[in-house]
Specification:
Order of helices and strands: HEHEHHEHEHEEEHEHHHHH
CATH topology of the largest domain: Rossmann fold
CATH architecture of the largest domain: 3-Layer(aba) Sandwich
Number of domains: 2
CATH superfamily of the largest domain: NAD(P)-binding Rossmann-like Domain
Radius of gyration: 19 Å
Helix content: 40-55%
Strand order of the largest sheet: 3-2-1-4-5-6-7-8
Length: 303
């Protein structure tokens, strides 16, 4: 049964039109929500659409809705160049800006001042608990984490976690909305840095990056092993390319800064790739070269 808060969600605003923010927008539109996207960079949404279409092609896996519906949904997303215009009718706002705590707090404060008082405020942060952001707003009881994975079309999981003041009604509304857009909610019952699947994925990343950077195993063989063992279309290094190596590096750095342990510091080899502009799918080159990565070739698994 829908809560009144869930049934009231009709207008969704995404703040940040990067690859993941753009995907969330299209996913919601495909399930009949009115969606606006704001980004301070002109044309950001359109550029992100091109990039995540390359991601779908590389993974050889389409969206959870018919591809025609997905493509039609792209044209239905409204873009706004002024944040106030994007937020004026919002029932649910999802912040999807880069993984920087102070930036997120600043954006939340701006959203709080502009969005209707009824609006639920969610962060799509990959790691940062909403409790570290909630005191930047006057409605902490309506704040929560809704963390999507990329590509939304292939990994339709969403972590949901409340903060210190989030009401049970808001959590239930978030959970039901996630289900309503064809995604699977993963409820985090107690606050933890990195949420649910992201912590599992983080453990994988740390090990495979160590094995690659220290020269133990070629990254291609790690991906082959993963793809064969689990029957998946992409391995850890291909997935990091899809996520964006800059995003991967910043997320790994956030874990390092959180723990202060050297073993959590991302390898310099990864930083060098990012500094050199090798960001994965979004730049055309990361561990693999795009739009035709080696792992998409059927012969790749033969070694």
């Amino acid at each position: 049964m829908e809560t009144s808060q869930t049934s009231d969600i009709k207008n969704v605003t995404i703040i940040g039109a990067g690859i993941l923010g753009a995907q969330i927008a299209v996913q919601a539109v495909c399930f009949d929500y009115k969606v606006k996207v704001y980004d301070n960079a002109e044309g950001a949404f359109e550029r992100s659409v091109e990039k995540f279409q390359s991601i779908m092609a590389a993974r050889k896996k389409g969206p959870v809705v018919p591809i025609e519906q997905w493509n039609d949904g792209i044209s239905k997303v409204q873009t706004a160049s002024v944040m106030a215009n994007a937020l004026k009718d919002a029932d649910l706002v999802i912040e999807a800006v880069p993984e920087d705590l102070e930036l997120k707090r600043k954006v939340f404060k701006e959203i709080d001042a502009l969005a209707p008082s009824r609006a639920i405020l969610a962060s799509n942060s990959s790691t940062i608990p909403i409790s570290r952001i909630e005191d930047a707003v006057v409605r902490p009881e309506k704040c929560l984490n809704l963390h999507f994975y990329t590509p939304v079309t292939g990994i339709n999981l969403v972590d949901i976690m409340g903060g210190s003041q989030t009401t049970s009604e808001i959590l239930e509304a978030g959970k039901q909305w996630i289900s309503a857009i064809g995604c699977i909610p993963l409820t985090v019952k107690k606050e933890i840095y990195g949420f649910c699947f992201n912590r599992v994925w983080r453990s994988v990343k740390r090990q495979v990056l160590y094995m690659w950077a220290d020269g133990f195993v070629d990254f291609r063989d790690i991906d082959r092993a993963w793809m064969v063992a689990f029957g998946l279309p992409v391995g850890p290094f291909g997935q990091m390319d899809i996520n964006g190596l800059d995003v991967t590096y910043h997320v790994e750095m956030s874990y390092y800064l959180e723990s202060g342990e050297e073993r959590d510091r991302p390898p310099e080899a990864l930083k060098a790739m990012v500094d050199g502009g090798e960001l994965g799918v979004k730049s055309g080159k990361g561990f693999y070269t795009y739009p035709d990565p080696e792992f998409a070739n059927p012969d790749f698994l033969k070694g």
